[in-house]
Design a protein that fits this description.
Length: 261
C-alpha cells in the first residue's frame, strides 16, 4: 500500500493524499520519500494546474511518527541527519511547487502537519480542525517547518505557538493567517471548488512566474545552505538525551522528567 497517493483529473487538478490513516497520517521515512517523489513528478507534469493536499481517514496529519523518530535518533549520525535533510526538502518542495497549492485540513493537524499546511498557498480547514506545533513538548526542534511557519503567521504569532506547543482551533488559525477559509465539517471539497476554479482561470505560466517572484521578493526560497542548517539542528536535537526522554514519555504515556506541573 502506498503511503502517499497521487492522481490528476482531466482538468489538471492533482491530488496528493497522505495515506497512513491507522496512525493519523503521521509521517515516517516512507511518507517523506513518497512526498519527495510525488511532488517531483507532479511539478514536472505539464498537465498539472492546481495541487490539492489532503489526508486519508479521520485526520489531516498528526506530525511525525514518534516511534519512528526514536528509531531515527538511534541511527548513525549520517542517517539521522539524512532524514532531516529529506524532511526539510519535502517541505521546501511543497512550498516552492510551481502551481497553486491548497491544503484541505480536517481533524488533527499537528507538528509537521502544520508545516505542510503552511507550505501551501491556501489552507481550507473544516470547523472541527485542531492545530498544534507540538515538537518542543517531545524535546525535538521543528526546524524543517520554521521558514514556512514564519511565512504563514509571522514572528509575533510563531514565537508563542512554536515555543509552547499549545493547541488552537480553526477560528484562531484563521485569525493568525494560517487558515484562509473555514467550512462546515465534511465540506472541504465544496469549499475548495471555487478556489480551484479561480486558479484554473489564470494563465499557468503567469501563475508559476508570479509565485516564484513573490516568494523570492519575500525571502522565502529556502536556499540549500538553509536546508543544511535546519537539518543539522533538527538531527542534533533529536539525538539528544532530552529528546530521548521526551519521546519515551509520550510513548509510555507519562510526563517527561522536565515537567513539574
Amino acid at each position: 500500500m502506498s503511503v502517499v497517493l497521487t492522481e490528476i483529473d482531466d482538468r489538471g487538478v492533482a491530488t496528493v493524499t497522505l495515506n497512513r490513516p491507522a496512525v493519523h497520517n503521521a509521517y515516517d521515512g516512507a511518507v517523506i520519500d513518497g512526498l519527495l517523489d510525488g511532488l517531483a513528478r507532479l511539478a514536472g507534469d505539464p498537465r498539472v494546474r492546481v495541487l490539492l493536499l489532503r489526508g486519508q481517514g479521520r485526520h489531516f496529519q498528526a506530525g511525525a511518527d514518534l516511534a519512528w523518530l526514536q528509531q531515527v535518533a538511534a541511527m548513525p549520525p549520517a542517517a539521522n541527519r539524512d532524514f532531516s535533510v529529506r524532511t526539510t526538502r519535502a517541505m521546501r518542495d511543497l512550498h516552492l511547487f510551481p502551481r497553486p497549492t491548497i491544503a484541505l485540513v480536517h481533524g488533527a493537524c499537528f507538528g509537521g502537519g502544520v508545516g505542510l499546511a503552511a507550505s501551501c498557498d491556501v489552507v481550507v480547514a473544516s470547523q472541527e480542525a485542531r492545530f498544534a506545533l507540538t515538537e518542543v513538548r517531545f524535546g525535538v526542534v521543528p526546524a524543517p517547518i520554521i521558514p514556512q511557519m514564519l511565512k504563514a503567521i509571522g514572528l509575533p504569532q510563531l514565537r508563542r505557538w512554536i515555543l509552547s506547543g499549545e493547541a488552537f482551533d480553526a477560528t484562531r488559525a484563521e485569525g493568525m493567517g494560517l487558515v484562509h477559509e473555514i467550512c462546515p465539517t465534511g465540506g472541504l471539497d465544496a469549499a475548495a471548488a471555487p478556489l480551484v476554479d479561480a486558479f484554473l482561470r489564470a494563465g499557468p505560466e503567469a501563475v508559476a512566474a508570479t509565485k516564484r517572484l513573490t516568494l523570492e521578493i519575500a525571502g522565502q526560497l529556502v536556499p540549500d545552505a538553509m536546508v543544511d542548517r535546519l537539518a543539522d539542528v533538527a538531527a542534533t536535537q533529536r539525538a539528544s538525551a532530552e529528546a530521548a526522554e521526551g519521546l519515551a514519555g509520550f510513548l509510555e504515556k507519562r510526563h517527561p522528567a522536565w515537567y513539574r506541573g
